[in-house]
Amino acid sequence: MPRMLDVSDAVRAEIGDEEADRLLAGDNAPGSYDCTSCRTPGDSEQERTSTVLFVGDETAVLAFAHASCLPSQVVQVTEEQLQGAVRSIGTAGGDMAGVEPHGSVPEQAVLGVTSGLVLIDGELHPALVVEPTSPIVRPGTIGTGDDFLPLLIEQGFMPLTELASVPPVLHGWSVLLAMGQLHAVLQPGTNGGQPVAWWQAHQPLQVTDSWRAAANKHQQVLMFAAPVGSIGRQPREDLLRDALDRAAAGGQLVAAALPLAGT
């Protein structure tokens, strides 16, 4: 039976027309599946389903997602990430109660990225809190200052003095959540090109079921950023919120709402 599959041009180019046509005819596509993004069941005979191709250095894995969760796309990952993602397929994932910082960006500036739920105006929102481990100077300059917040403000992030409302959406940026894990924060490519990773997890970052559910509900993630020493490693979400409030009150916090997997 034909499936309600979306196969993007990029995916078709990778897997070939013959394989793509077989998928659309229902030969190689599953009827039921676990969505690679929200991890809940899907049925390609009953609802629009996206084909998502994860491409590593040597291998590739084709996964399926609700079209409302992820568009059909090709996701470039390292071979290590791909093998880890393969091991995660079919598992519930995301039962961690604490938070762990991971990641890096070019110029070897190390960023701590923490996931948590933030209560704003009576509703829980999925959030990422980014704090460098050392001051960030403007590329091409030599100095001892910290340009982390000015650089983000130039990209469109908004300074906050309090967490009273959801920050505006920053179009062109997005958060890639796939296979139930956090993979990257993407920024616009140069000259209108493909989005590139502003931050990418060394290994896909587990998030809690409640965080993932909130992300899929809102279809966006709130990103907060603060200079080194402003937030610290907080073991609980209430302590993380207290640290965010202090940073905002001190003029040391910027934020934006980033669409989910807007690649």
From TrEMBL:
Chain residue ranges for the region called Disordered: 24-45
Protein name (Swiss-Prot/TrEMBL): Uncharacterized protein
Organism: Streptomyces echinatus
